[in-house]
Amino acid sequence: MEPVSAEHVTTLRRFNRYFTRRIGALDDHYLGQDRPLGEARLLFEIGDGVSLRELRVRLGLDAGYLSRMARALEAQGLVRITVHPKDTRQRVAELTPAGQVEVKEQNRRANHLAEGLLRGLTPPQRGQLTEALGSAQRLLRLAAISVDVVDGAAPDARACLDAYAADIDERFPEGFDPASLVRPHEVSGDTGAFLVAYEEARPVGCGALRRLEAGVGEIRHVWVHPDARRLGLARRLLDELERQATERGYEIVRLDTHASLTEAQAMYRACGYAEIPRYDANVYAAYWFEKRLAR
Q: What fold is seen in the domain 6-120?
């Protein structure tokens, strides 16, 4: 992976400073209400009710800090904290009627602030900004996703494969038999690898590498959760699988794909894979590809 340039770091930090100041994130009375941004955001995220555990993961907050904020909001009569009906180890936060009123007012003020910012632009400029912000959000989501090597038998690995199998079973006209999935021992250790992509501790993608023959690895089951598609995550998984192959001494990687997976075919070609004759007996494959890895 190439190093990040100082220019890119400086530009991102400059934008962060400008934007947080412009929307009033530094003010203890965010949006003119009697609370800082952290508490305002927590009220918004609680919405119709959510466990403190989920809030901690979603917002990336320290458990103690989250608990203190939740208790402060409870003391103000805006939040009610109860024990989860199905799990006594969990606590659930929900808005009181007063909390619902405050969130409604918070949304009104936030919309007013956004409208005020956009009012100074022409309609084409608003469209340009909206498109740029959408691109920025997608790229920041992708940047925040981690891709980890896990054991092929790990629960997250098997859960991703189950989701992959269910997904393509719906897409393939002939269906899909999960018995065709890779075995844990094939994608673990010195000869193989299983990757899981995590977004906020939730698995959102996977990919597998196994040994095909001497000097040749095979990439299997590159999958991205529907919620994380169109971010560029599939390419990132593919890049990491190629890196794992290089680390294991493979000079060539191969893969196959179904005729209906046109987006996968386009991605493989765009990433330097050349179509080759059939190399396996996979009944679901219609196209076979190969790429020679740089050493």
A: Arc Repressor Mutant, subunit A (1.10.10)
Q: How far is CA 219 from CA 25, 50, 144, 258, 264, in A?
A: 45, 39, 24, 14, 13
φ, ψ for residue 159 (rounded to 5)? -65, -40
CATH 1.10.10.10 domain locations along the chain? 6-120
Give the pLDDT band of residue 34 (cuts 50, 70, 90): confident
Give φ, ψ of 76 to 5 degrees: -85, 0
DSSP classification of residue 275: E
Examine the pLDDT at 206 and tell me if it is beyond 90.
yes
Query: Residue 263: what residue type?
Result: E
CA angle 68, 71, 75 (to 5 degrees): 135
CATH superfamily of 145-292: Gcn5-related N-acetyltransferase (GNAT) (3.40.630.30)
What six digits make up the tokens of 214?
Answer: 């001497």
pTM: 0.85
